Amino acid sequence: MSAAIQHCVVVVKNPEGLHMRPADKLVRTAASFQCQIELERAGQVADCRSILSLLTLAATQGSELILRAQGPDADQAVQAISHLFESQFDEPSAAPG
Amino acid sequence: MLELQGIAVSPGVAFGRALVFDREGYRITRCLVKPGEYESEWNRLIEAVRVAKTKLESNQLSTAATLGDHLGGIFSAQQQILLDPHLQSELENLIRKKSYSAEYAVSEVFTRYAAAFRKSPSSFLAERANDVRDVERLLLEHLTGQPMATLTQLPHEAIVVSHDLTPGETAAFDRSKVLGICTEAGGPGGHTAIVARGMEIPAVVGVGNFLHNIRSGDEVIIDGHLGRIIVSPDASTRDRYLERRLFRQSIATQLEEIRDLPASTSDGVRIELMANVEFPHEAAACIARGADGVGLYRTEFLYLGHSNEPSEEEHYQAYARVVRDMQNRPVVIRTLDLGADKMGMTHLTEPENNPFLGLRSIRLSLRNPALFRIQARAILRAACLGDVRVMFPMITTLDELRSARFLLRSVAEDLASEGDYIPCAVQVGMMVEVPAAVLMLDRFIEEIDFVSIGTNDLTQYTLAVDRSNESVADLYQACDPAVLRLIQRTQQIASENHKSTSVCGEMSNNPAYALLLAGMGIRTLSIAPAAIPILKKAIRSVTIGQCEAMAWRALRLSTAREVDAFLMNQLAGLVPEIVLQA
Predict the structure, then answer these.
(1) B86: which chain A residues are within 8 Å (Cβ-Cβ)?
(2) Using the beta-carbon criterion (under 8 Å), do B86 and A97 form an inter-chain contact?
(3) Pairing between β-strand B294-298 and β-strand B331-334 as defined by DSSP bridges
(4) Cα A48 from chain centroid?
(5) CA–CA separation, B431 and B436 (whole Å)
(6) Which end of chain B is least crowded, N or C, by CB within 10 Å?
(7) Most confidently modeled range among B28-42, B253-267, B406-420, B431-445
(8) What is the number of CB-based contacts under 8 A between chain A and chain B?
(9) Strand bridging mode B13-21 / B219-223
(10) Do A20 and B117 touch (CB under 8 A)?
(11) How many C-beta neighbours within 10 Å does residue B144 have?
């Protein structure tokens, strides 16, 4: 099991921020990996398997978050999750939260 | 069985199941479980989570089918909240380590998350509090086996138990469902008490902290005569109360027989018994109880439970209904008695350090003439339908009285010039509620048609006691000799000037006090509709001479306690059949 920590910076592009549905998707995606995955915003760290913890980040549009993963499939996890942020979680563009 | 003593504020005995509400309108169930029960409590929660998950899944499917996957996704996210590992471990911790019941753990954790979200500067996140609340509601519904209630929509008949109730909450009650009320806070003159009496709901307030000892669903007896609440009564207590209820019902039957007879003493002195009402629908109850009219229509309740100011038409419709239902009997409409101590109108009143000494009542109306004019127009329009009189609350200075009268006159002129309504002559009175009004009454009296003594506020301002503060509630005694002297002086000045005086405070709901007031020369009492039959019975059982002798002696006593004991003793001697067994 690799101890290496993978990390990158992701930006919230959704107009309504990291709200319920994106957070839901994020949790589901995170759950498909074995590694520990965290998001950090302004010093506050959220566990990507906990939707309440993610929502508490109050990440609005434009927020920069540090995505960190540690574990066997950390690489793939970081890739998959940063893709979610890139693609705006496949949200309809002007969808309200 | 748990028996607690509070302050009796609305008579009657209620039997039923408790529905416990916290400040947010949800019931709390601050309840601890025994060490051996942790496992079963945790299993109860797991089962509730399973049921809630099924419910959310079916919501998701049906919403997605009708409104699309996008909206169905909301319920998917709620499932994530439900199954959130952090949340689950917090719940488990509270149950296993802190002995919380499953309901209490759920209420604690979800309330905390909802509060954290609500405080968020981000509006999208603040709204997530509602999703958290939705999930909480699902869990609690399963755990308690009852739909989550709000005070306005109770799922079934219940005894409402709470720390405190705002007047708005009390006013919004579904009276067919609320069997009784019991609160930890509050005093005898508070608004919960007044509304409960108006709705004829047995109530006990000021019980002190006890919500941790009661769960929704517990069997409860509220004794609104003795101020007692009994949780999970044993069989003999239940039987005793059922017996007592039968006894009261038999008295009620006797009272029904004298319903249409006048409230005259046995030697023929007529005492007018008017009713205090808050809600238009109460007028029918006044007639049913044999009231001679409405002596105090508290119009501020129009504002309760509404976020917007009522329009002139809304005022008018409410007044018109009361006036019509009273069938030409007099209706005394009191203008707004709002203030920072009373709910709702936050844009009119700033929070105040001493709301009872602040911008309230007639002061607030005079400061907001537009608001006052709307009400005045509605009152004058309603006056065309019957015997309507206007009364200004909390008049303290002559200037206030003159300003209020001036506004009323100018509204009447407007109405006359518009031509749709020709205002009739309306009697104008003032409430005597502050000692200053009594001291200056010889000046006031020339400018008014009648006086009404509001003993609730008069007691509060004479004795400097905040009636809603339970730590000084024992000092709040309408029978305090100081209050009695002010009532006596008011009555003397009014009678010397040939103006009528009524007493419309809660004091006269008590038959002993009513006889005392009659003995002091008061000929009009305005009371809760429910108290009318028993007062009529008391008055018809005595001579005015007996009342006068009672007053003569009572006014020579030195303390409220002596007065109270003397009056109760007199009542027991004069009208033993209505002194209810304890």
Answers:
(1) 47, 50, 52-53
(2) no
(3) parallel
(4) 6
(5) 12
(6) C
(7) B431-445
(8) 60
(9) antiparallel
(10) no
(11) 20
Residue A97: inside a domain: no
In a domain, A67, yes or no: yes
Six token digits for residue B123: 């509006």
pLDDT of residue B8: 87
The answer to whether B80 contacts A27, with C-beta atoms less than 8 Å apart, is yes
Tell me whether strands A44-47 and A36-41 are parallel, antiparallel or unpaired: antiparallel
Look up the domain containing A19 and give its range. Answer: 5-90
Q: Going along A3-91, which residue ranges are E strands?
A: 5-11, 36-41, 44-47, 64-70
Chain A contact for B81, CB < 8 A? yes
Instruction: Tell me the pLDDT tens digit for each residue of A69-96.
Output: 999 999 999 999 999 999 988 876 544 3
ipTM, 2 decimals? 0.81
Instruction: Say whether residue B75 is in contact with chain A using an 8 A CB cutoff.
Output: no
State how far the Cα of A83 lies from the Cα of B14, in Å rounded to an integer.
63
**Placement of tokens 């506020």 in the chain:** B457
**Min Cα–Cα distance to chain A from B82, Å:** 9
C-alpha closest to that of B210 among B200, B199, B222: B222
| Annotation marks residue B191 as catalytic | yes
- Helices and strands in chain B, H and E counts: 22, 16
Distance CA A33, CA B349 (A): 57
Neighbours of A32 (CB within 10 A): 10
Mutation pick from B69, B82, B84, B91 vs chain A, by most beta carbons of A within 10 Å, is: B84
CB contact under 8 A, B70 and A95: yes
Rounded to 10 deg, the angle between the B38-67 and B102-118 helix axes is: 50
Any domain includes A18: yes
Number of domains present in the structure of chain A: 1
Q: For the domain that residue A41 is a member of, what is the CATH number? A: 3.30.1340.10
